Amino acid sequence: MNPNKKRLARRSMAFVLAGGRGSRLRELTDRRVKPAVYFGGKTRIIDFALSNALNSGIRKMAIATQYKAHSLIRHCQRGWNFFRAERNEFLDILPASQRTDEAMWYRGTADAVAQNIDIIDSYGVDYVLILAGDHIYKMDYEKMIEHHVDSGADVTIGCLTVPRAEASAFGVMAIDEKDVITSFLEKPKDPPGTPDNPDVTLASMGIYVFRWDFLRDLLQRDADDPSSSHDFGNDLIPDIVKNGKAQAHRFEKSCVRSSTEATAYWRDVGTVDAFWKANIDLTNFAPELDLWDRDWPIWTYSESVPPAKFIHDEENRRGSAVSSLVSGGCIVSGTEIRESLLFTQVHTNSFSSLERAVVLPYVYVSRHARLKDVVIDRGVHIPEGLVVGEDPEEDAKWFRVSDGGVTLITQAMLDKRAEAL
């Protein structure tokens, strides 16, 4: 390695954009922003971006929040409070707080960074890594920063390789033979192929690397432009592609995979169906995402709870879990659980069954309940005898049934149902 590039991560900061609601998750984001939504039994979605940064050697981070940020802020205070300023480490929470104008909240992703220029200046960094806080993946960001330095680009953009037939849902890149971006297209009907494979397209991951001095000047010019929407994807990136040098960085060059992970894993769990499937996929014999990889751990807040407990061993009343993930503090009392994921402190009772269920923390399942293909929000009390997943029309009267047939259950829905019955 060139001596001038050593410790690039130490000369960089991660700026995580975590202000968007994520409305496609429906009622799951009624009380929390999308990056604060639970995932995988213990973690929150934002833990993946933060863990990637930490594991990559980055010790300076900031999180810009806006929509219903309390749950996210509390999680970061509890689970990410180990940074020490005396070691030149930081994790700052930057809520939209009208710092530059009493009438101005964050107007876009670029504006969220621009309003905090003075704070980033105080970090004394050479490079800024802009991250979305709402995707599930494992990635060594330092490799991407190295690529940025080697290429001499004004911006380096993290890109997924996706089939052309699926690329119309993304912002995509047309590139040359050296992966220099020649055009940036937002959700095109006919996405371009790549020089090495006309059947695939490079789609933006919403991850950008800049030299801070370059980005600082760019943000200040954009802030003064009344015609701008102050967004990286809509304004800043197209301008650099046209007038500067934008480099594509393919995810497969820096994705982190254990010996059990055959493919580069990245998921946008932005819909109820996608969220349910990504969680249920973890119950597979060899899941595509390895959460057990000790070389690249996903850090999070871990509650102090007792081990999970399974009780009763009688016919039709046996506490059991098959092909499932059961977190600490759970009590499975005479319940049959299959292909399901239970978060912390879920209590289930006798003669009930859960099949392909994603059950968020502190849910209580009463006796004789039968639940299949469901997502149950935090703190829900499932009443005795409730049956969900067997009659879609009946389920749709009371709950949110997705296009894929997954039923989302919240306490407010159950309360309305109880009032009606």
UniProtKB/TrEMBL annotation:
Glucose-1-phosphate adenylyltransferase/Bifunctional protein GlmU-like C-terminal hexapeptide domain mapped to chain residues: 306-409
Marked site: Could play a key role in the communication between the regulatory and the substrate sites: 66, 105
Pfam families in UniProt: Hexapep_GlmU, NTP_transferase
Keyword hit for ATP-binding: yes
Nucleotidyl transferase domain ranges (all copies): 14-283
GO molecular function, a single term: ATP binding
One of the protein's GO biological processes: glycogen biosynthetic process
UniProt keyword terms in alphabetical order: ATP-binding, Carbohydrate metabolism, Glycogen biosynthesis, Glycogen metabolism, Nucleotide-binding, Nucleotidyltransferase, Transferase
Catalysed conversion reaction: alpha-D-glucose 1-phosphate + ATP + H(+) = ADP-alpha-D-glucose + diphosphate
Quaternary assembly: Homotetramer.
PANTHER family with a match to the protein in the record: GLUCOSE-1-PHOSPHATE ADENYLYLTRANSFERASE (PTHR43523:SF2), GLUCOSE-1-PHOSPHATE ADENYLYLTRANSFERASE-RELATED (PTHR43523)
Family under the similarity heading: Belongs to the bacterial/plant glucose-1-phosphate adenylyltransferase family.
Protein name, UniProt field: Glucose-1-phosphate adenylyltransferase
Organism (species): Roseivivax isoporae LMG 25204
Organismal lineage: Bacteria, Pseudomonadati, Pseudomonadota, Alphaproteobacteria, Rhodobacterales
Gene label: glgC
